[in-house]
Amino acid sequence: MVGSASIEVFCEVIPPFHLMPRSSLEAACNAVLGGLVRSLLPIFMRQLAADYKRWAADEGYRRERAARSKPMA
């Protein structure tokens, strides 16, 4: 299983951060968010693969998951 992620964030720059160059703010935010995505994506993919393996092999688990995903009236 292979995954990739892309994130785009828009935010309003408030004082006192408005005094910093926008490119510096963007670079800092991209570094932090990029690091988070790079560290969380592999964990998510491992958990997704494990869940799929269980779902594919266990009919009871499939029924349980299907029951949980039905909308409540």
Describe what you observe in this structure:
The protein is mainly alpha-helical and 73 residues long. The chain has a domain at 32-66. It is built from two helices and no strands. It has helices spanning 22-57, 59-69. Helix 1 (22-57) packs across helix 2. It starts with 21 loop residues before the first helix and ends with a helix. Pfam families: DUF1997 (PF09366). InterPro entries: DUF1997.
Keywords:
elongated; mainly alpha; 73 residues; 2 helices
User: Low-confidence parts lasting 5 or more residues at pLDDT below 50?
Assistant: none
- Multimer state: single chain
Rounded to the nearest angstrom, the radius of gyration is 20 Å
Count of separate DSSP helical elements: 2
Q: Give a quick account of the main beta sheet: strands, pairing sense, barrel closure.
A: none
Mean pLDDT: 91
Order of helices and strands: HH
Number of strands: 0
Q: Into which percent range does the helicity of residues fall?
A: 55-70%
Q: What structural category characterises the helix and strand content? A: mainly alpha
Approximate shape? elongated
Proportion of β residues?
Answer: under 5%
